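Q: what does this look like with zinc ion bound?
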Amino acid sequence: MVSLNWKHHTLIQALISRGPLKEKEFQSIFTGVTGRNSGAAKKIFDKYLLEINKELSYVHFELRACRDQYDGQVCYGVVNNVADEQSKLGTKYSVPQIAFFKGIIEAIAQDEAAQGCISSFDALNIRLENQLPSEASSSQQQVPPAFKNFSMSQKEKALVELVKDKWLCRTNEGNIGVGIRSLLDLRSWFRNNEVPSCEVCNEAGVKADLCPSEGCTVRIHKYCLKKLLSQRDDKRCSGCGKPWPLSKVTKAEAVEEALNDEEENETQPTAPKSKRRRQLRSHGDSTDNSSAQASLASTSGATGRRVTRSVAHLR
Ligand SMILES: [Zn+2]
Ligand SMILES: [Zn+2]
């Protein structure tokens, strides 16, 4: 058993009290604490993360990295691997607020166009009744008063709080998207709810570009697409073999992006390395949607697997 020193503790503390942190912020804290540059001393940086995660795993927490799907930047955070979403948000948010949050995340995750957001209008019109356990939702009488009385202004207030806490985000267009805290924390939920993964990085393609071919369900994050393009000119969709439209990404842009990313990628402690990718189901299969509608609460049975998988990356 490795024992952690004050340097490890400072890093954990920074992520818990101020996180999730952008890679640059986290690395500058690392440099401040250890006197090492995380880029030059990458092995030492990785060793710290590994040691921290070995200890955190005993209490089912994990220091994790993931990309903000809206700007492509790597972020670090400490996530709770065991608790369901109720207990993750429960200390601060009320039951109807959590139901509201779940409704928004589900609406975004189910979007077949993978735009990664919904309008504020749609968000405010999310029906909390849909978040009740299935046996209760069949009967209107069982809708708790707290749900029925959850007013528009309470929803607006919850939105502001959830954005502030990075569970949700505001996109550049003013829509409501998935916040970095949720991207870090709900990784298993996105998998369990069959949000199709990005072809390149295997993370859920919450905000991604879709293959334009009819019937092809391949999706790729914009930043992953840029990286791919920097590696070769002829990019064909791995699903249908047709050329991927690249008009919006110039080669120069892509190469630059890839150079910036190279280091970032290597320092991600939990980036999925295995090419474990579920075969996507055919486009016409209407059951795809209904399975994604399972509520966040119903995923609690998967937490055991979740822990095993995420810890396994680090060993
Ligand atoms: Zn990707
Ligand atoms: Zn395709």
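The CA atoms of residues 169 and 231 lie 31 Å apart. The two ends are 13 Å apart (CA to CA).
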